[in-house]
Design goal:
The chain is of the alpha+beta class and 203 residues long. Helices cover 23% and strands 36% of the residues. Strand 7 (121-131) and strand 8 form a beta hairpin. It is elongated, with a radius of gyration of 31 Å. The relative contact order is 0.15.
């Protein structure tokens, strides 16, 4: 039998998550909300949250403290580290792109970075931060898992259209077949000649 859940059992964290979900204009299925202490963030990657290997992408974090107020980069001593998955504890990050203030949607000066993932696969983005000049939020560490796809250029390069003969690459020969319109024109011309000869014989 279903029993109502006590509000006190979950307390502030549930309210905090609800505030983040309301403040985030994107559906929850497209972006993951991470919370550490009294700070939460949603990761956005442009374009279309679909990073491709070898292509620059802009990642930015909708960083919010408890109560729904946004945290700007100027108020946060933040660092971003990127690890290839899987990785072990203590392993140095693959990338440490510098953060810059990004203005996106309703967020002014939110932390962001330009990232070029070297190859397709799974990565983890780790955003660490602490308040600057007496800010009223706790130090935090937020981890986001990201899957990077192969770019269309890389896919086409990995599957060249060649034939191998005697361990040498030989390009496929061009097709020598005639286009359909040329074949049809030849057939109609032949029929015309046959009909003309038949009419002359009858005359």
């Amino acid at each position: 039998m279903f029993r109502p859940v006590s509000r006190a059992k979950f307390g502030i964290p549930v309210v905090f998550l609800l505030l983040l979900a309301v403040n985030n204009p994107h559906p929850a299925s497209a972006h993951t909300i991470k919370v550490a202490g009294d700070v939460g963030a949603t990761l956005h990657i442009e374009p279309n949250d679909n990073p491709q290997a070898g292509k620059p992408a802009q990642a930015w974090f909708a960083l919010t403290r408890k109560g729904g107020k946004a945290i700007a980069l100027k108020d946060c001593d933040c660092q971003l580290a990127i690890y290839a998955q899987p990785h072990t504890a203590g392993e140095p990050p693959l990338l440490e792109p510098p953060l810059q203030a990004i203005t996106a949607e309703k967020y002014q000066g939110t932390p962001g970075a330009d990232i070029t993932f070297p190859k397709p696969g799974a990565y983890q983005l780790v955003l660490k931060g602490k308040p600057i000049a007496g800010g009223n939020f706790q130090p935090f560490e937020l981890k986001f898992d990201v899957t990077v796809a192969a770019s269309a250029v890389n896919v086409s390069r990995s599957s060249p259209q060649v034939n191998k003969e005697n361990d040498q690459d030989v390009a496929q020969p061009q097709s020598s077949s005639l286009p359909l319109w040329a074949i049809a024109a030849g057939i109609f011309a032949s029929l015309g000649v046959v009909l003309a000869v038949m009419q002359r014989r009858k005359g």
